[in-house]
Amino acid sequence: MVELLDLIPGLPEEIALDCLTRLHSTTHPLATRVCKTWHHLFHSTHFYLHRKRTGHTHKVACFVQALPLNSASDTVNVKPVCSYSYGVTVFDPLSQSWDRIDPVPKYPNGLPLFCRLSSSHGKLVVMGGWDPTSYSSVNDVFVYDFTTQSWRQGKDMPESRSFFAVGELNGRVIVAGGHDDSKNALNTAWAYDVSKDEWSELPRMSQERDECQGLVIGSEFWVVSGYKTESQGHFEGSAESYKVGSGEWNRIEEAWRPSQCPRSCVGVTIHGKLFGLIKSDSGIRMGICRVQLGESTIVTGSTYTAGPQELYLVEDQTGKFERLDMPDEFRQFIRSGCCVEI
After folding, report:
1. CB-CB contact of 236 with 136 (8 Å)
2. Domain F-box: where (predicted)?
């Protein structure tokens, strides 16, 4: 709990806190420099949760997106091994604005390939992936603070894994499934507490699930489909859900269409049923990425291989797709994404 006295001299602390709570998130980096009291307040989880309770946060979509070729690594005279380098872009659906986050200091020429995104208490979390030069898997965890507009390196993932499911539940980031460095599918799962920078092991799922998809439905974290080591590429129709405190996974049969890859394209109906966005009416057929933003969903993708990205806002109640304008400089391939409430 942060001491709230003298937040604004001459004002009762409740009124002063209400005034600061109403500041837009874009002003927070400057506000933290006013005084030590404000600095501690704006960096506290208590203040973030207070803003969230009082309706003064808003949701943005963060994407792992290919960078324009002339901005990826030319500036440091390093030629990337892969065709594209990737960075984090941010789309604000309220202002319809796009922006790019500064590179992770450890990877100035592009994020690890196939890294995964999640969030916790207004912070963006980047984890795992392949080193963009050696293609070896990495266990790195990076946390971006929108208040300070800076990165910090978190505690490494306990196990090496690629193509895993990830999602945020009750402030903790959960990772599950994927495969290890020997391409063996995994059934293990871990939870990362961002504020404490600690990992804790969760119960194992009922089976291995490589290339599975994670999403949160209500108060449960779901791991959808995937396949076992001996069933390379043959996606399961089952899913598993985990509720914090339950101590076990619940297996759901016939939750997904067998043989269809679930990665980044799992939609949820208003009745809680899963469906594939590739079968939607949007016309998007390739490279689909879905980000849930409260009562609406952002869907990106292209109509054909290597085609330009299209952006849609989907109303969850009606399932109606509304095409949104996308600036030319942000129409590069989007690999994955997540929602951050800032």
Report:
1. no
2. 9-49
Residues 193 and 130 in one domain: yes
**The domain containing residue 247 runs over which residues?**
59-341
Pair of tokens at residue 132: 């963009």
Same domain, 248 and 146: yes
Given this model, what pLDDT does residue 111 score?
97
pTM > 0.70:
yes
Which tokens belong to 49? 């949760």
Phi-psi region of 46 (alpha: psi -120 to 50; beta: other; left: phi over 0): alpha
Q: Residue 181 — φ and ψ, nearest 5°?
A: -65, -20
Domains held by the chain: number: 2
For 139-149, b where at least 16 C-beta lie within 10 A, e where not — what string? Answer: ebbbbbbbbee
The CA distance from 136 to 115, in Å, is 12
Please indicate, yes or no, whether residues 148 and 191 belong to a single structural domain of this protein. yes
Report percent pLDDT > 90 for the chain.
67
3-state percent helix, strand, coil for the chain, nearest multiple of 5 = 15, 35, 50
Q: What is the CATH number of the domain that holds 69?
A: 2.120.10.80
Residue 301 sits at φ, ψ, to 5 deg, of: 160, -170
Cα–Cα nearest to 282, from 298, 294, 260, 269: 298
Signed CA dihedral, 270, 276, 278, 284: sign only: positive
Look up tokens 């009606």; give the residue: 318
What φ, ψ does residue 19 adopt, rounded to 5°?
Answer: -60, -45
Q: Fill in the amino acid letter for 249.
A: W
Of 168, 143, 164, 295, the C-alpha closest to 244 is 168
* 42 & 126 share domain: no
Whose tokens are 């469906």? That residue is 275
